Amino acid sequence: LLPPRTKIFTWLHNEWRTRQPDIRPVDRAVEKFLTCSSYIGDWTADHYRLPRTRFVPLPNGVNLSTFHPRPNFLAPSSPLKVLFLGRIDPNKGPDLATSAVAQLQSQGLPISITVAGGLWFYSRGNEHADPFFQSLQPLMQKASATYLGHVPRDKVPALVREHDVACVLSRSNEPFGLVALEAMASGLAVIASNRGGLPEACGNAGILLNPDDFPSIVSALHSLATNPALLTQQKQKSLARAQSAPWSTVAEKLIALTAATPEPAAPAHPIENRKLKIENATSSSALLAAEGPA
After folding, report:
1. Confidence class of residue 126 from pLDDT cuts 50, 70 and 90?
2. Is the pLDDT of residue 211 over 80?
């Protein structure tokens, strides 16, 4: 049994899809839906025809003690070090970053790229047979890319801060794009897609563009590779953006939000702890309970 004045908030971190024909029981059970971006709130409201007043954006934060710049991150470096970090999937755009770097190299610019990421969230044993990976290999070879495969989470911060620019060129709509914010906290300039939650993750600090416009990707990288003042400016903007979004600030907002929500009226009978079936809830949402006074 849940205490009679328990308030439940559902924090959505993805496009929440379910086969349930009726989600009204879920809607009635929660005080508010918290969302990692306004994009996810708008998508969910539209998809399930729920009022937008049911959704409150609570964007992700970044661990500033783990993700931080290298000591000399503003110093000029040659070659310009570009990083793609993410799943090796066409939706994530590693081919776009790699091809853009190869094109700039063909123009004689000193620029390199590291590609880091596995083909899925876990090993399936036949990753290298994946058609997209096979198509990516010649592109990486052309760009003389360093391919690292999957990088353990505890090794990621050190890897990121070794670079100058992060490319987050997702073709699909990212719910938020924490990789962009973590790159910013590490002092990298960020080139990101102008869709999904990425504009919210980047704030006004990223170079946002249409990932379907390949010349704009090449142009953005060219500008950073040939204009040291611009690169320094973008790195500084990145760091300022990330420093405004530590997880501690997210926690404070969450506490304030749950405290400000009016106490529900006590029911005439105890609330049964009924199981509301939300498929994939483990990966797409987190249930938070703020217990009111007895």
Report:
1. confident
2. yes
* Cα(11)–Cα(3) distance, integer angstroms: 20
Pairing verdict, β 111-116 and 32-35: unpaired
Q: From the centroid of its chain, how far is CA 196?
A: 10
Give the residue, 5 or 189, on which the prediction is more confident: 189
Q: Are the CB atoms for 57 and 38 separated by under 8 Å?
A: yes
The neighbouring-strand residues paired with 208 are: 192
pLDDT, average across residues 57-77: 96
**Which residue, chain included where needed, has tokens 């999957």?**
150
User: What is the number of alpha carbons within 13 Å of residue 283 lying toward its C-beta?
Assistant: 8
Distance of alpha carbon 217 from alpha carbon 199, whole angstroms: 16
Answer whether 1's CB lies under 8 Å from 276's CB: no
- 10: β partners: 33, 287
Q: CA 149, CA 182: separation in Å to the nearest integer?
A: 19
In the block, tokens 């500008």 appear at 223
pLDDT digits 0-9 by tens, 214-252:
999 999 999 999 999 999 999 999 999 999 999 999 999
DSSP output for 224-256: HHH-HHHHHHHHHHHHHHHHT-BHHHHHHHHHH
Task: Answer for the pair 231, 191: CB distance below 8 angstroms, yes or no.
Answer: no
Rounded distance, CA 183 to CA 219, Å?
Answer: 20
What does the block give as tokens for 27?
């809607």
